[in-house]
Design brief:
With 271 residues, this protein is mainly alpha-helical. Helices cover 78% and strands 1% of the residues. Strands 1-2 form a two-stranded antiparallel sheet. Strand 1 and strand 2 (28-29) form a beta hairpin. The longest helix is centred in the last third of the chain and has 56 residues, at 185-240.
């Protein structure tokens, strides 16, 4: 599970709620303050308007993947070292038994990109065409992932805008109904002003505590996935070229940070 996303999200809402109910003068928690931030109409304008605009801006093929996006955000990111070890094992097997023997290993993999990559060299496709096809697939994946993250960027831009729209609606209604001759007009003015500002609060909270973190998490997952796929491509090309397994392993380790390489070295020494 992606603990950083869960902890950060929960912490953001807890701190906002604490700021709402905490009274600095008495240093006590006034939970009745929460009622000041409850307004169904403002919620409908901000959240409903944002969702409606996102739906209007994107195809249903992308919108239907929103549950999958949550799955990507919540699960643990792919480990590049895992793919380096797979490539090293495949290179050793290919060196001993030949490329055709790798076909038996394909069924063990869950990663579809890895399966198709191995089958390209099993089918004896030319090296240049193997790299071209895999990099083309990588480019298509990158485009789809950019679309997904862009949808949440759009939500982060739209939500504060609808918050402002709700505020303007509230202010217009407030001014239209204002009557200074009426007793208690000043108190009504203050109450209506507070309600008008709630939509801006909703919009800012939705953008900064939901949409922006989701877009950033999707991009982080994308970068990690692209790194793993680049390792697969380089490993497959090297295996097809008949390079030494040890050399392939060292070459693929260059894709990792120094800290990750040290971890890989510790794992090898532990074995």
């Amino acid at each position: 599970m992606n603990l950083s996303f869960v902890i950060g999200l929960v912490l953001a809402f807890v701190l906002v709620l604490f700021g709402i109910v905490f009274d600095t003068e008495t240093s006590s928690l006034l939970f009745e303050n929460l009622g000041n931030f409850e307004d169904p109409t403002s919620l409908l304008i901000t959240v409903g308007g944002t969702i409606a605009t996102i739906v209007a801006s994107h195809p249903f093929s992308l919108l239907s993947k929103i549950p999958a996006h949550f799955g990507v955000i919540m699960r643990k990111q792919q480990d590049p070292l895992h793919y380096i070890n797979i490539m090293t094992d495949l290179s050793q097997e290919a060196r001993k038994k030949g490329l055709l023997a790798l076909e038996d290993s394909v069924s063990e993999f869950d990663d579809q990109f890895l399966k198709s990559s191995v089958m390209l060299i099993v089918d004896a496709m030319e090296p240049d065409k193997v790299r071209e096809q895999l990099e083309s697939e990588l480019s298509n994946i990158e485009g789809r992932h950019a679309q997904a993250a862009g949808m949440y960027d759009k939500g982060a831009a739209i939500a504060p805008g609808f918050g402002m729209i709700g505020t303007l609606i509230g202010l217009i209604n407030m001014l239209a109904q204002m009557n200074f001759e009426d007793e208690g007009g000043a108190s009504k003015l203050a109450k209506n002003m507070a309600v008008a500002l709630i939509t801006t609060f909703y919009g800012s909270l939705l953008a900064n505590a939901m949409f922006i973190p989701m877009a950033n998490q999707l991009r982080l997952a994308h970068e990690q996935e692209m790194l793993c796929k680049e390792i697969i491509i380089e490993g497959i090309i090297s295996i097809q070229a008949g390079e030494n397994p040890r050399h392939i392993h060292e070459k693929l380790l260059s894709y990792l940070t120094q800290k990750q390489r040290e971890k890989a070295g510790d794992g090898e020494s532990g074995e």
